[in-house]
Amino acid sequence: MLKFGRNTLFGKIFAVLFAISFVVMASSTFAATTASFSSYENEAENALLSQTNSFANLLKDKTDEERLAFLDKIPMADVRCTLIARDGTVLYDNWADPKKMGNHASRQEVVQALTQGSASTMRRSETVGQDTLYAAIQLDNGEVLRLAETRTSMASFLGGMTVQLGISLGVIVFLSFLASSLLTARITRPLRHIDLSHPLDNDVYQEMRPLLARVDEQRCELECQNAELERAMEARREFTGNVSHEMKTPLQVIGGYAELMEYGVVKPEDNARFAGLIREEATRMRELIDDVLTLSRLDEQGQQKLDPVDLSVVCRSVVDRLGSAAAEREMKIDLDVDDNVIVLGAASLAQQMVYNLVDNAVRYNREGGVISVSLRALTDVEPTEVGASKAKGTVELVVSDQGRGIPEEYRSRIFERFYRVDVSHSRETGGTGLGLAIVKHAVCAFGGQVSVDDAPGGGARFTVRIPLA
Ligand code: ADP
Prior knowledge:
With 469 residues, the protein is an alpha+beta fold. Helix content is 52%, strand content 18%. The chain has a five-stranded antiparallel β-sheet. It has a five-stranded mixed β-sheet with strand order 7-9-10-12-11. Strands 6-8 form a two-stranded antiparallel ribbon. The structure holds adenosine-5'-diphosphate (ADP). Adenosine-5'-diphosphate binds next to helix 9 and helix 11. Adenosine-5'-diphosphate is lined by residues 356, 360-361, 364, 401, 403-406, 414, 419-422, 426, 431-437, 460.
């Protein structure tokens, strides 16, 4: 359905088309009317002139009296006949008394007939007081024979047709309305039937193609964003499910041990051991909660504040903190770090990144194995045109151990949340399954990349590359 509001495209097109068709129809009707009127006038003028001519021939070679008698005898009800002397005196008139008529020397048709031999003119008669068509011819003796016919002028012709004119105006308005409505509907049809769900499939005007292409682009973008959002929501749902599942296990274990102690099943001498087991599970839960909180904070924060962080200081402090855990299992940590290795990011995130990598190395290393932590600032020197040089560097952190390593097929998945290679031994090795997910997140926040491969002497080797500040 077309909507012809004040500010609609349809309304505007309709108004323009209506105005154009109205003007065209009205003016062509007017032109046709005036053309047929004037051709009818011409015909009448020629007929009157030829009638005057034949009368003039009949008056040839007649005396003055004979001429007057002849004119008197001709039956002419509709035509006025006047005979005018060369000086303008009216000699004869079948409609008025010649004696009462003024001199006609200045009448337009008389003047012309006297100079050119014949004339015809349309004017208002002073004697009769009506629009009159005159034809005049000069006779041999110099007198002028004039025939006249009362006629309607164009103005009075039109004036007498008000009703007809009103009707034709109505018809013109109706036809203009019909024509412009149909045309508007036709022109706007492609616009009214645009299918915005498939913008490029529409058969529309060429000018609209770029607009529809843009709509299609935005629709695709929106679809991608929706899919992304859907994926993110799905991941969140999955994460929440995993978190509750992971929390239930230590809680059940704690509940079980506590129940045994409550009902006196545990011997008094074993109480300390059970309390220790409960504490271990509680620690495991605290670690899990810490990791979950870290990850959800990372998820929410987006772009973090960028501070300069010295990774060499971070590496030393992490190795310090994990030194006793490694020593307990007779492992040695080789620390080989450059000084002043500055990157941009959050200090706490740098701590967690390095800690999780070294902690995994300690947990998954073989008893008595060596762990190596190396930190290098690699600076490639890029010469510029003006001869100066611009330092563009990367920080490379490598943590490797001598444990079982990570089989190739699992390497792409170990950075996923709660993904564990060896699920059955996960309780023995400890860990939350979130450590590497946090590492990956942190590395991304520092604008870097992390990868894993085999260490030269077996075991896993994690390599982190971050742009130098
Ligand atoms: P977890 O808390 O279980 O260690 P992570 O996210 O830190 O969780 O690691 C995911 C999985 O990757 C671990 O369960 C383990 O199977 C494997 N993994 C991580 N680091 C090492 C390593 N240094 N050596 C062998 N396997 C590792």
